[in-house]
Amino acid sequence: MPAPYYVSPEQIMQEKEDFARKGIEKAKEVIVLEYRDGILMVAENPLTTVFKISEIYDRIALAATGLYPDYEALRYAGIQGAEVKGFTFNREDVTARWLANQYSQQIGAIYRQPDAKPLEVELLLCEIREDSSSNNRIYHLSFDGTFWEDNEYTVIGGRADEIAGILEAEYSEGLDLSGALQLAARTFETIETEVDEVDRYQVTAETIEAAVLDETRNRRKFKRLLPDELSEILSA
């Protein structure tokens, strides 16, 4: 009887990492920016049937890229878990940090299973501050379950490093909503032109999806920007 084929654990994990990275590298990007009144999330997304940015709870939103069925399942689980925790204990107990830990355990457990396909996802969990004495929170989750906190702006998706380089040079604190959205649009246009060598690429209300966590709103801080609002800002 022939001996079973052996693959080292190191090789298995390397192949999982390569597989997940290749999937994410094909994904369109999402930019998250802090602005004067909150957090703006902008995704390249010409599809009308799929959302990459969603509300999770009162002050929490999820921005995702990668394989849609993978992050849609995580979105649903996050909403369900947040509602149960908020109802069982207190609404203030539902935080982005708590949810990031939940997602980290779930994603990491799948990634470490030798016979399971890793999730081809990259996530941003955003939480608007309660008041001027606290800070906004942006947690960045990777395909292997690791997560860290970003400040002011961050990017996920295939060309994230190139886009982050542009934002590093152009981002400034205190932007209003119009300025933050126009910066995100210019960044997408620049990266399409410089990296993908596309002539006269223009961001429109039909090519992006955008939403905000607005601290001036009442209990539910999430607001999706409608096409008419996007067109008005982008044409200014």
What does this structure look like?
With 236 residues, the protein is α+β, with helices and mostly antiparallel strands. The chain has a single domain, classed as Glutamine Phosphoribosylpyrophosphate, subunit 1, domain 1, CATH 3.60.20.10. The protein is 39% helix and 23% strand. It has six helices and ten strands. It has helices spanning 9-25, 68-88, 96-112, 160-170, 177-194, 227-234, and strands at 30-35, 38-44, 53-57, 60-66, 121-127, 137-141, 147-150, 153-156, 208-214, 222-224. The model has no long low-confidence stretch (mean pLDDT 92).
Structural class: alpha+beta
How would the global form be characterised? globular
Largest sheet: 5 strands, antiparallel
Mean pLDDT: 92
Q: Strand portion, in percent?
A: 15-25%
Number of strands: 10
Number of helices: 6
Level-2 CATH architecture: 4-Layer Sandwich
The CATH class: Alpha Beta
| H and E string | HEEEEHHEEEEHHEEH
Rg calculated over all Cα atoms: 19 Å
